[in-house]
Amino acid sequence: MAIITISRGSFSLGKAVAEGVAERLGYDIISRDLLLKASGRFHVPQETLEKAIHDAPGVFERYSYTKLVYLAYLRATLTEMVADGNIVYHGLAGHILLSLLPHVLKVRITAKLESRVARKMQDGFSEQMARARIIEDDAHRKKWTRKIYHADPNDSSLYDMVISIDKLSKEDAVDFICQCASRKAFEWTHDRIRQVKDLSFACGLKASLIASFFDVKITCEYGNLLVYAGEKVAHSAKFKRTINTFQKENSGIHNLEVHTGVPVPANAV
Amino acid sequence: MSILILSSENKELEKEIGKKIAQKLSFATLNEQFFNKIAARHRLEIKKISEAMNITPSILKLMPAKTWHYYLSCVELEVLEQLLEDRCVCWGLAAHLYVMVISHVLKVRLIGGYGSVSQSGQFSMAPDKMEKHIAQQERNREKWSMAAFNRKEADPGLYDMVINLDQIQVDEVVDTLSMTMGYSRFTAMTYSKKKMADQLLGARVKNTLLKSLTDIHVHVQDGTVVVTTSSMKREKSKKIETIKEIAGRIEGIRYLEVRWNKDIITEAATIFR
């Protein structure tokens, strides 16, 4: 049992690899279902969520935090969806949305531009058009990751494995990933199930609070939620109401504390 | 059979993995120890070869750019010659930067894994200091690889696979790579050997020319050699003639073409003299 995220550039055969891995291991596969579920849970149109996770922020969006609010919704939904393990996620930004879980196998599939262009041309695009679209898409991804997470999507250190589908085939990539998923580092232990559950609580509460209280940070360990907020926020009635409702709605939470004026841990969401 | 080229900033793990794979597959190894042979064949100092492989030339450093390029070309030439004989695991010789698009060569970059190295006591640094040290080391390597081969060492596009050793264990990497090396597509074929021979010819031409000239770039396809160089306009014909004369003596060239570009900077500098 494991959680696998597969990141890819467009037309790099990442989807085919993800499907191959899910089929071989008998895992569930998530991609656009995330948008559908998040859209239903937080009442935001699917297109808006897709834009938030795909397009780089525009000049005005950089200061409005809208994208970060939608990302918190997507993260809360994804952590809930993967909580039972046996999942292959090949949608956008999986390696970033689940970056706080070290035992998630994070894979990137790459391919040479020429082969990606050839694949896009099979959809009826001219070579020039196919090349332009792929380059534009890559630029969007790069800009998005830079602006929101201050990272480069091509930075190999974000992943456990980067596989180039040129000399190596799709089947080889499936073999490598399946082998790797069975390794000890990615095994699904009780402690790791607990970690995913904890992250899911933290992300869930963050998603409930973020629209009104953007700066609030949350950690969760063994079902104990610690909320880090400013003095003013901590005393607001709306804030208290929101966290109380969240605690009542989620049975696995043992304790919920609000901390003010203390340093926020690095693993807070 | 095939060739495996490893690249990593984590020299300890790179060596450990390289050795284990070579042992498992009964392959030869090619690493820094090969400097002895290079030094003997080209009458160079081993210390200086090692220096050239690690330090980027600058005004303040002792090794001039011309010598630096020549030393690197000697390493490139000898490594390519060795790689013609396949069944080899190679690391520590920057071969991933000059062995390009050869189908029976698997190029793998290993990243991370500093946790296991520090646990073994090989690094006696505090974690934050070690992080800074690694970041600095990576910056230096990028500067070096850009100056030497105009390629970024950390660019994942240079490799068939990048493996992060923070979560994946050394033995697991050894198993995976040993298995991959057994795939039939990594068997040396006539066309891939020919491609390797072309790269060797290019390295030989470059090495011979760099003995007396500077600013030399060589491209070879099917024995056709294209040498690109630059100089001031008044030296154009002399430089082209010299290149043709020197390179013309090298065996294996079917056709030699010299392309010349104007060295605008030197040209401009001499106008005001």
The stretches of 5 or more residues of chain B where confidence is low (pLDDT under 50) are: none
CATH architecture descriptor text of the largest domain in chain B = 3-Layer(aba) Sandwich
What's the CATH class label of the largest domain in chain B?
A: Alpha Beta
Q: Please give the share of residues in helix of chain B.
A: 40-55%
Largest interface: A-B, 27 and 25 residues
Q: Kindly, what is the distance between the CA atoms of the first and last residues of chain A, rounded to a whole number of angstroms?
A: 25 Å
Biggest sheet of chain A, in brief? 5 strands, parallel
The CATH class of the largest domain in chain A turns out to be Alpha Beta
Identify the overall geometry of chain B.
Answer: globular
Strand content of chain B: 15-25%
Strands of chain B, total number: 8
Look at the structure and name the CATH superfamily of the largest domain in chain B: P-loop containing nucleotide triphosphate hydrolases
Can you tell me the residue ranges of chain A where pLDDT is under 50 for at least 5 consecutive residues? none
CATH architecture of the largest domain in chain A: 3-Layer(aba) Sandwich
Termini separation of chain B = 59 Å
Number of helices of chain A: 12
- The amount of helix of chain A comes to 40-55%
Percent of residues in beta strands of chain A:
5-15%
Mean of all residue-level pLDDT scores of chain A = 87
Secondary-structure class of chain A = alpha/beta
Summarize the structure.
Chain A is an alpha/beta fold and 269 residues long. Helices cover 51% and strands 14% of the residues of chain A. Chain A has twelve helices and eight strands.
Give the secondary structure arrangement, pairings included:
The complex is a heterodimer of chains A (269) and B (273).
Chain A: E1 3-8, H1 14-25, E2 28-30, H2 33-42, H3 46-54, H4 61-64, H5 66-81, E3 87-89, H6 94-97, E4 105-110, H7 113-121, H8 127-149, E5 161-164, H9 170-181, H10 190-209, E6 217-221, E7 224-229, H11 231-234, H12 237-249, E8 255-260
Parallel strand pairs in A: 1-3, 1-4, 2-3, 4-5, 7-8
Antiparallel strand pairs in A: 6-7
Chain B: E1 3-8, H1 11-25, E2 28-30, H2 35-42, H3 46-54, H4 65-83, E3 88-91, E4 105-111, H5 114-119, H6 127-149, E5 161-164, H7 170-181, H8 190-210, E6 216-221, E7 224-231, H9 236-248, E8 255-262, H10 264-271
Parallel strand pairs in B: 1-3, 1-4, 2-3, 4-5, 7-8
Antiparallel strand pairs in B: 6-7
Helix pairs in contact in B: 1-7, 3-4, 4-8
